[in-house]
Amino acid sequence: MSEEFVKVGPLSDFPAGSQKKIQVGQLDVLVANVAGNIYAIGDTCTHRGCSLSDGTIEANVVTCPCHAGRFDLTTGKVIVPPPRVNAVSFEVRLQGSDVLLKKR
Q1: Residue 96 CB coordination number (10 Å)
Q2: CATH of domain 6-103
Q3: Per-residue buried b or exposed e for 25-42, using 16+ beta carbons within 10 Å of the residue's own CB
């Protein structure tokens, strides 16, 4: 993925309360709309490779459905193990009605 912002879809594809797995280049990315704020981190749990988009989200935290590891959606940082490695995080930008992402 380049260092530039990449359009991933219109904001209407990510309604409030939603979480969705998308493909950005070679990466699976979890895009979540939490109370009107869009967040994006790598969708693959760094512990055993489970899909975070199948997990639950409370506030700004996603819980992996496999072993209950937790990641901060704003930074990709591990909050609760067993994962030890942070998830990839993305800067999110809205341009008109489009959602754009850039890997941090």
Answers
A1: 6
A2: 2.102.10.10
A3: eeeebbbbbbeeebbbbb
CA separation for the pair 80, 71 (Å, rounded): 7
DSSP 8-state code for residue 98: E
Give 2-52 as a DSSP string: -SS-EEEEEGGGS-TT-EEEEEETTEEEEEEEETTEEEEEESB-TTT--BG
Alpha-carbon gap, residue 61 to 53, rounded angstroms: 12
Q: Structure pTM?
A: 0.94
Listed by start position, the domains of the chain span 6-103
| Tens-level pLDDT at each residue, the chain (104 residues) | 557 999 999 999 999 999 999 999 999 999 999 999 999 999 999 999 999 999 999 999 999 999 999 999 999 999 999 999 999 999 999 999 999 999 99
